[in-house]
Design a protein that fits this description.
Elements: H1 4-17, E1 25-28, E2 34-37, H2 46-56, E3 61-70, E4 73-82, H3 85-93, E5 97-101, E6 104-109, H4 112-116, H5 120-126, E7 135-140, H6 147-157, E8 164-169, H7 174-181, H8 184-194, E9 202-210, H9 218-232, E10 234-239, H10 263-269, E11 286-291, E12 296-301, H11 305-312
Parallel strand pairs: 2-8, 7-8, 10-11
Antiparallel strand pairs: 1-2, 3-4, 4-9, 5-6, 6-7, 9-10, 11-12
Helix pairs in contact: 1-2, 2-7, 3-8, 7-9, 9-10, 9-11
Length: about 325
Amino acid sequence: MISINELALELFEELAEYPEDFNAVFHQLDNGARIVDCGVQAKGGYAAGKRFTEICMGGLAEVSFRMGQINHVPMPFIEVNTDFPALACLGAQEAGWRITHEKYFAMGSGPARALSLNPKECYELIEYEDDCDYAVICLESDTLPNEAVMQKIADACNVDVANVCAVVAPTASVVGSIQVAGRCVETAIYRLEQLHYDPKKVICACGSAPIAPVKADSTKAMGCTNDATIYYGQINLTIDGADIADYVDKIPSSTSSSYGKPFYDTFKEANFDFFKIDQGLFAPAEVTINEISEGKVYRCGAVNPEVTLQSFGYL
């Protein structure tokens, strides 16, 4: 069986050995844990953002960039494709691990989640177990973790702390904007999971989203980076399951009661509590589907240039 931690480790090793090639900074803590700073104190950039996203998806996705336009406003877009959508997106990339220790906080994602079974139900659903002596984790945080934080991750993953590898970037950074836009395909797979559709029926997936400009404030950065997919993420899914016809209209973000305004405004109205926001909002703007058993195609949702440009600060 594929080990997503082993695949991600290969990507991490190059990043750790040649951090200057990625505008990143390598650290090895006193307990042996290894960290690559991709945006906390380091500048980061497209190379680091690409590598961060690929690690986050367990080495099971290809990531590239292109220039595009939204209502004639030029901006960069990320493009992501994977032939292992359920494992890469739900088993690795989903930001499902809140890591706290004293004053430290990070949202954890990446293949280390498969070792900590965080959450266990996810791995039962996709029928996956990883067996690897190394844990590779992606931390979305404004600060670098210390020895105690890395020990806590090692304990949860049941590996030696010297075998824990972390890449770190704040939301308000170049890599932060890239890696959140890189979750565009994940939002579609996550939405199907929410709707109780079997994500294992998705054979392959491809998506794109604009890369949000970097904001000075982390909460505002969270807003516009999420809006990149909510209002302009475009996804194509290839599915082997005719029952998808019953779910198509429920997938896009426009079905959410919270849809229609920049995410920061919605988040503020919810007193910055994610759990008060309709979870259906965390979905792509537009989805096309090719269902192969009957040879049918479906399309749902639409991009929203106005809210995207408003969120990014161009309107």
